[in-house]
Design brief:
The protein is of the alpha/beta class. It has 2 domains: about 180 residues, Rossmann fold (3-Layer(aba) Sandwich), CATH 3.40.50; about 80 residues, no CATH class. It has a 6-stranded mixed beta sheet with strand order 6-7-8-3-9-10, sandwiched between helices. Helix 3 packs across helix 4, helix 3 runs parallel beside helix 5 and helix 4 crosses helix 5. The longest helix has 18 residues. The two termini are about 30 Å apart. The C terminus is likely disordered.
Amino acid sequence: MNVLEVHDLRKTFGGFHAVDGVSFNVEKGSIHAVIGPNGAGKTTLFNLVSGHLRPTTGKVSFDGADITGKTPDVLARMGMTRAFQITTIFPKLSVLDSVECSVNARKRQAASLWPWRRQAARDEALKLLEAVGLAEFRDEIANTLSHGDQRTLEVALALATEPRLLLLDEPTAGMSPFETRHMVALVQDLARSRGVTVLFCEHDIGTVFSISDRVTVMHRGQVIADGAPEVVRKDQHVIDVYIGKQDYGSKVQGGGLKK
């Protein structure tokens, strides 16, 4: 069963076709990656799917409902959330307070007016921090965390909205090998243990092919390959335009992809 269906999506800026007839489906409970070289249209695609841009033409469906052009707040209430950098949102709040704010936003309540509600929200926030491995940092100010821990907090903030579909934009970018392994384990847990469908875009080929159930490859605004990792990784067009003949072995070294 598909939780997300993208059909013939297009976005033009003047005469530039940033997304040019993209179609793909995301299966419920899966980990689905979107990859491609810089300028392929991945970020624009994510902006279209998550409601931050309106498509020129095309259709996006979520759980069978047409969500084309709906705003991010509406999509969040429907169960689709995109993780963003938390330092832009709650730079001066503690880690625990940040997640508590997201819990209250989901419940659409001002918890400070009702002490019992505040405690319930705080308890839920703490459980989320324990789930993502940040409980020990609950009293730290959000923007003092390491880069990897900030990205993990982004995920916790998104989980506070109780999404059925979570969009992650390069979740391992700038991370150390240790932080990358932690994020990979977290993403896998979201799908396998919590039943959250994950759609993510990522440049780390090793990560992509080691955890994804399906991979969509974009180039110049179009989909050039879409399928299981073991099929996509052998696609000659993908190798030619993205992985590269010379760098094929090095780019996947240490990941799930083997030459």
